[in-house]
Amino acid sequence: MGKVVRLRGSSAGGGGQGLLDDIRDALATTGSAYQEMETLTVTVAEWRQIARTAARQLQRPVRTFVSTDGVHAVLTDWPRDDDEQAQHDNAMRRAVESTAP
Prior knowledge:
Layout: H1 17-30, E1 32-36, H2 44-58, E2 62-66, E3 70-75, H3 82-99
Antiparallel strand pairs: 1-3, 2-3
Helix pairs in contact: 1-2
């Protein structure tokens, strides 16, 4: 699974284009997107719909779900090539290194 990222806040006005762009960018670069419940500027259902739209634009399969603290979108075919695998491996390596004493 790709690295979960926090998205910058976006206005729901104008159809949520800023949010769509943020989610699409996160999906394309990390394989996933995440937004904390307390920072949502649209409803959970709208966020999930926007995430599905972003994935369709990337022509990628996605799964959206809600946790106790946020809403998530994860590409189900991530990583699908060597470049994405390298991004994934580097993110995992950084995560492990950041927890080392």
